[in-house]
Amino acid sequence: MDNSIIELRHLRTLLALEETGSVSLAAERVFLTQSALSHQIRVLETYFGTPLFERKSTPIRFTPAGERLLKLGRELLPRVAHAERDLMQIVQGEAGELRLAVECHTCFDWLMPAMGVFRPQWQQVELDIVSGFQADPVGLLLTNRADLAIVSEDTPQAGIVYQPLFSYEMVGICAPDHPLAQKLVWQPEDFIHETLITYPVPDDMLDLLRKVLFPKNIHPTRRNSELTIAIVQLVASRRGIATLPHWAVMPYVEKNYVVERKITEHSLQSKLYAAMREEDKDLAYLNDFCEIIRSESFANLSGLSVLK
Q: Which of 60, 63, 153, 239 is most buried (most C-beta within 10 Å)?
């Protein structure tokens, strides 16, 4: 038997299928077309002479053979990642500094868990967050006051490179007894006579305004709050409506404090990138931190899409 038939990419594909429950989403996750992913699976199934999952099940249900390969993936891939990390530390050294600058308030929902995973793996790297909300985190990179910035746009800038993290859906929220709760999809015109509750950030950093409302010349009444929970509380008490990431509002939707609604038929998608100085783009711990952000976020947050 050819022992090389099972490759790491096959195991990553199967784990992506398990995590997403969908061939299309799994293909996105591992940066393949659906046909290429299906070909990978067929190669394994042909070789072993057995299906790995039930084709018409939703979500995907794995056969005993598929479950055995999943078990292998769960055991082997973390060990490979650990070995790769050790090798990077041997080559580049274990010590370093990673000062994070963040421009979005809701980033902390996923950033803190990612930092928790990173710290024990890179114990000699000094990890810290630049205090306060940053309106120009890339500027902090250029003046050497930060080493990695989490930003919503990959605007070309000399000396700066970007790594895509993920895209996510922004949803509208209102009180359950608000008139807009009767609409499943909100259009730009629905915001005209409403009070919009937002974070206290520049208008060009709010995708709802920049992508949906301002192109229609719609400028609703505004109210600001710095905390996500405070925004939700104001919305629940009918002081206004808001737009927040799907993952951020899910706990409050499940408790029926607020309801969430899609914004336009195509949905409102926002993006996140990691920005770093070009001279630092090959630092192992910076790249590893970006990969940890992606893997932890996709594993624990709903409503994410692969950002290429």
A: 60
Mean pLDDT of 120-136: 80
State the pTM of this model.
0.76
Is 253 contained in some domain? yes
Q: Name the residue with tokens 């509750």.
A: 197
Q: Are residues 156 and 300 in the same domain?
A: yes
Give residues with Cβ within 8 angstroms of 284, minimum separation 6.
85, 88, 89, 91, 92
Neighbours of 184 (CB within 10 A): 8
Q: Are 204 and 210 in contact (CB under 8 A)?
A: yes
| Among candidate residues 47, 66, 89, the one where a domain is terminated | 89
Beta-carbon contacts of 149 under 8 Å, excluding residues fewer than 6 positions away, are: 100, 101, 102, 103, 134, 137, 138, 140, 141, 274, 275, 276
Say whether both 135 and 179 belong to one domain.
no
Taking each helix axis as running N to C, give the angle between helix 246-254 and helix 228-236, from 0 to 180 degrees, rounded to the nearest 10.
50
CA angle 191, 195, 197 (to 5 degrees): 105
- The predicted-structure confidence for 214-272, as pLDDT tens digits, reads as follows 999 999 999 999 889 999 999 999 999 999 999 999 999 999 999 999 999 999 999 99
Count the Cβ atoms, other than its own, within 10 Å of residue 83.
Answer: 10
How many angstroms separate the Cα of 286 from the Cα of each of 59, 137, 289?
Answer: 35, 16, 5
Count the domains in the chain: 3
Residue numbers of the domain that contains 61:
8-89
